Amino acid sequence: MPGRQFPEGMRKFLSAKINFRLVKALNNYIIILVTTKDKQEAEKISHSLLNERLIACANIVGPVTSFFHWSGQTEKAEECLVVMKSRQDLFKQVADHVKRSHSYEVPEVLALPIVDSSKAYLDWMSVVLKPQP
Q1: How many other C-beta atoms can be found within 10 angstroms of the C-beta atom of residue 62?
Q2: Which of 2, 88, 107, 117 could form an SS bridge with 102, CB 3.0 to 4.6 Å?
Q3: Domain annotation for the chain: domains and CATH numbers
Q4: Buried b / exposed e along 93-120 (16+ C-beta atoms within 10 A)
């Protein structure tokens, strides 16, 4: 509409220079969360995924206390949490690998989007991960 004035906040938003390449790259990268029965299992899964270049890095946190429903009961368990960095196109391969090598009947394999990151970290991830098809 000619002559229409946008509120100040909207003008700033519309005039902001957005690095669309970085935004697109962020949409491809994910954090994958996996819980394991102990540190040894967490390390075994992490090393295997790293060797296949399906993850760029893994952080093992633990023990963590988990509460969940299983077989009609509320359960409590001491577990390790593995925080992995990867790409969205590799998630299915990571999930399949975890399911094959995990001791749990129903392992936790969750993907979360990375909503912000330094360009240097994303560049490093792109070098160490399996090349995109």
Answers
A1: 15
A2: 107
A3: 30-128 (3.30.70.120)
A4: ebbebbeeebebeebbbebeebeeeeee
